[in-house]
Design goal:
Blueprint lengths: L8 E4 L2 E4 L7 E6 L12 E6 L5 E6 L1 H7 L6 E2 L5 H4 L15 H13 L9 H10 L3 E5 L5 H15 L2 H18 L8 H11 L1 E4 L3 H10 L6 H23 L1 H4 L3 E7 L2 H18 L3 E7 L7 E5 L9
Parallel strand pairs: 3-7, 3-9, 7-8, 9-10
Antiparallel strand pairs: 1-2, 4-5, 4-6, 10-11
Helix pairs in contact: 3-5, 9-11
């Protein structure tokens, strides 16, 4: 219980809950995945123009792709097909690759556990968000279905969080249910975590599910940056629905939403979107953009405003 020094705990239905979350500020997070939360070994299959002018196969990491993806003079998708370049980023297993998200996740976590790699800039923030029971969205250019990403986060919790961190997370999660939803009885630990994971959003913006969502709601959205903006808007509207169901008590608390990405083009596009659109629509929300493109840390950009009732 040393983790909760100064907090107010209650013993309800045979388990501990953190009543102090009732007055805690409402922090929400939007995370890009690759090279931001984890350095996955998944590869991108491009073509590069060599010194003779011929196009040759070129396999690169996601970090390299974030730098070269706008350089159409020297790099291109094989046969002009994005799907061929990102075959390893799909759920479908083909002769050329794919279907290995969980295996790649385990390899990335092994690299951290054995000290072969350092954690990327948002790893610790994501870990802390889980322990505190904060709601989040994963917004990635991958092509996996939401359930694949959700299972990946469950694996992250199992492998990364210590027993103490896991218990703290459970006490916080029960606290939110107890204080804002009026829950008096609590299911198993696994059920509490599953409910939490189901409240979050998992947007792989090149997946079939996301394609269908775009087609139904915003067919004009085409580029990667536009798709990420759409995913961010979806998450914020999702948060609005949750807060409106919770009631006025939650709406009086300070609200902040942080977005982190290692792709400088995405960072610029999202910053512009937040400043010119969402900050005006939801001026009570403090928006923060974290640029992790240099791999050394997060460069914070603040965007904020003031209104009595957000999310209307």
């Amino acid at each position: 219980m040393a983790q909760f020094e100064g907090a107010r705990l209650a013993f309800v239905d045979g388990v501990w809950v953190n009543e102090s979350v009732r007055g805690r500020d409402l922090k929400y997070y939007i995370f890009d995945w690759d090279d931001n939360v984890l350095c996955m070994p998944t590869r991108i299959h491009m073509e590069r123009r060599d010194e003779t002018g011929h196009w040759v196969p070129h396999v690169c990491s996601t970090a390299t792709f974030s730098v070269i993806r706008k350089d159409v003079s020297h790099y291109r998708f094989p046969n002009g097909e994005r799907s061929q370049a990102f075959v390893e980023f799909q759920d479908e297993r083909t002769p050329a690759g794919g279907g290995n998200f969980m295996a790649d996740l385990d390899r990335a976590l092994d690299d951290l556990a054995f000290g072969r790699k350092l954690p990327p800039p948002s790893f610790k923030v994501f870990r802390k968000a889980l322990v505190e029971g904060r709601l989040f969205a994963i917004v990635t250019a991958r092509g996996h279905e939401p359930e694949t990403l959700r299972k990946g986060i469950a694996r992250f919790i199992d492998r990364v969080l210590s027993p103490v961190e896991r218990e703290v997370m459970l006490i916080n999660l029960r606290g939110y249910s107890y204080c804002f939803d009026g829950v008096q009885t609590f299911p198993s630990q696994q059920a509490v975590i599953l409910r939490y994971l189901q409240l979050n959003r998992y947007h792989a913006i090149t997946s079939k599910t996301f394609d269908a969502q775009i087609a139904a709601a915003a067919s004009e959205v085409k580029t990667q940056e536009e798709r990420k903006r759409f995913a961010i808007q979806d998450f914020i509207e999702h948060l609005g629905d949750i807060l409106n169901r919770t009631g006025m008590e939650a709406l009086r608390l300070p609200i902040s939403i942080g977005f982190s990405d290692d792709d400088p083009y995405n960072v610029t596009a999202v910053q512009t979107y937040l400043e010119q659109d969402l900050a005006r629509r939801f001026p009570a929300v403090k928006f923060c953009v974290y640029d992790t493109s240099d791999g050394m840390g997060a460069h914070k950009i603040m965007i904020s405003g003031q209104l009595e009732l957000p999310f209307e």
